[in-house]
Specification:
There is one protein chain. Strands 1, 2, 3, 4, 5, 6, 7 and 8 form an eight-stranded mixed β-sheet that branches. The protein has twelve helices and eight strands. Helix content is about 40%, strand content about 10%. The chain has about 325 residues and is α+β, with helices and mostly antiparallel strands. The chain has two domains: about 150 residues, FdhE-like fold (Alpha-Beta Complex), CATH 3.90.1670.10; about 120 residues, FdhE-like fold, CATH 3.90.1670.
């Protein structure tokens, strides 16, 4: 019998029917796993001090998460979001709530009290502990709106870390069946935030499928491979780049695990991580630890489709 050849749209339809399209975070290990990964990546790394600082932040996030109590979204709220094909927990609304205030104070206190972080980080954390709430809320609003003119880039990673705590807490109250995938791949179906990167899973029932990872709430959602996660371009416009040839003898597995998916249609890229080559990958941590790949792509005229929540800098820097 001749083999049936499927068109790209048919492949996508079959994939959507056969695999879980949304994966929600488990509350307990999210930040602890990130902290462990940051410490592992910090060894002999040019940005080791910063990665270790963010590991301390992740430790504080995990402790704050254990103390964070959130109400499960009401069924009517989920139904309205499904009806209008909108994220049920928009990040902009979370910015107006109080749930990130306590995590921010906990993170700032934890960093300010450490003697093994750079003095500048301790001073910044101390400043955050005494900053007026109104100013902090203005900063959070600017961050979520990507209003660069209003963002204090020094405090941005700490504020995003605080927002991540209730984001994960809320996501963990739902089941994947309650979150409807959106038609637009570039935004999280739960909170509407941009993904930090994508992963290609290695374990059943997800093995071989690509998921985007939300920078705010750690929700993951399916997106077909060899397709731009920013503009939807496909085919000849898509390419995969790494720091060196994948068959290079030095650290070949790492290069195979960490690549960038570029699109010549929109000149954007996002990193894509392959868990079959490194099962310990954590998207936020591994994105931070592969900034040399960002520099290489910038030199080639590509721009990041979206940033890392723990590292902010003005466009063009």
């Amino acid at each position: 019998m001749p083999q049936r050849i499927l068109e790209p749209g048919q492949i996508e339809t079959l994939a959507q029917r056969s695999i879980p399209r949304v994966r929600l975070p488990s509350r307990d290990p999210v930040f602890a796993r990130r902290a462990a990964r940051l410490r592992a990546l910090a060894q002999d790394h040019p940005l080791g001090d910063y990665l270790r600082l963010m590991a301390f932040v992740a430790d504080a996030q995990q402790q704050a998460l254990a103390q964070t109590v959130v109400e499960r979204p009401h069924t009517d709220q989920l139904a309205r979001a499904r009806e209008h094909a909108m994220p049920p927990l928009p990040a902009a609304e979370a910015a107006r709530g109080p749930h990130w205030h306590a995590p921010l104070r906990a993170i700032a206190a934890a960093i300010a009290g450490r003697t093994d972080v750079p003095p500048a980080a301790r001073e910044l954390a101390a400043r955050l502990r005494t900053s007026p709430t109104a100013w902090l809320e203005t900063q959070v609003t600017a961050l979520l709106a990507a209003d660069e003119a209003a963002i204090d880039f020094a405090v941005a990673p700490f504020l995003m870390a605080a927002l991540q705590v209730p984001g994960v807490a809320l996501a963990s109250t739902l089941s994947a069946a309650e979150v409807t995938p959106l038609d637009v791949a570039r935004v999280c179906p739960l909170c509407g935030s941009a993904p930090v990167a994508s992963i290609v899973a290695a374990q059943a029932p997800y093995a071989g499928y690509r998921y985007l990872h939300c920078a705010l709430c750690a929700t993951e959602w399916h997106c077909v491979r060899v397709q731009c996660t920013q503009c939807g371009g496909a085919g000849k416009d898509i390419a995969y780049r790494s720091l060196a040839p994948l068959d290079a003898p030095d650290d070949g597995d790492r290069r195979a695990a960490v690549r960038a998916e570029t699109c010549d249609a929109c000149r954007a890229y996002r990193k894509i991580f392959y868990l079959e080559h490194d099962a310990a990958i954590e998207p936020v941590a591994d994105d931070l630890a592969s900034l040399s790949l960002d520099l290489l792509l910038a030199e080639s005229g590509y721009h990041r489709a979206s940033g890392n929540p723990l590292l902010w800098q003005p466009a063009g820097d």
